[in-house]
Amino acid sequence: MTLTELKYIVAVAREKHFGRAAEACFVSQPTLSVAIKKLEDELEVKLFERSANEVSVTPLGEDIVRQAQSVLEQAAAIKEIAKRGKDPLAGPLRLGVIYTIGPYLLPDLVRQAIARNPQMPLMLQENFTVRLLEMLRTGEIDCAIMAEPFPDTGLAIAPLYDEPFLAAVPSNHPLSKQKTVRAEVLKQETMLLLGTGHCFRDHVLEVCPEFARFSSDAEGIRKSFEGSSLETIKHMVAAGMGVTLVPRLSVPKGALVPVPARRRKDDEAFVKYIPFEGDPPTRRVVLAWRRSFTRYEAIAALRNSIYACELPGVKRLS
Question: How much is the pLDDT for 219?
């Protein structure tokens, strides 16, 4: 049994396809298949069920793959321990970020990380929460910035900040003249939502739960529309198609400062961002990583870089 063979079975379990697993491991498919067959013969168990269309892991194979992932992580930890003796921050950090945080946090975060820890470049991956959790479990990324809640997967969690939501309405909408807005008022409007898979969609539906029923039937087409990104939805708001909720960091700089519309640029002249009356709905943004991840200094350095970001309008957490 070798670490290479363990790497191969983890890759097949992740990709559910021998060809894609071979590509991910930078070997030919016959090389990978022979190595896995050798391991199955050695263990005298069948790890995978092969069919014409897909590969599935056997029940016993699930346990073996899970243990193999742990062994690979521990082997990698040996190298990390050696690196830490020279420079605990040496080498890239693989960071995942959900779609509704990445575009607004990463520009400032990358600048801060380069200035503070140039020897630790960030390898970035944007994706849905469920996919980032899977990538954390399989070791494809080291840590992830996500919004709670998400399933308890035994990860280590460090709260970063609480971020309020604002309402985004067309500049010619009657609500645009108000200084604050109540969630009850938005229930009468056409709500623009992110597509299924975005956790921010769920946050919006918590504020306006009655829109949940519109997202699953034909009638809803008249009451809610879906976009692929927050920026796309903002364009839809600017076009007068409806209203939406946005996280504070996604609000353009200066958009909350009263200025003549002619001095604003692009969609800023056509979208008004309105705070909620009283306690606003918020989301908690956290940094998550595997408890077995050994680069504690790298996690601490990343947190410090995040806290060095401007983060306007959010409540920082320690």
Answer: 42
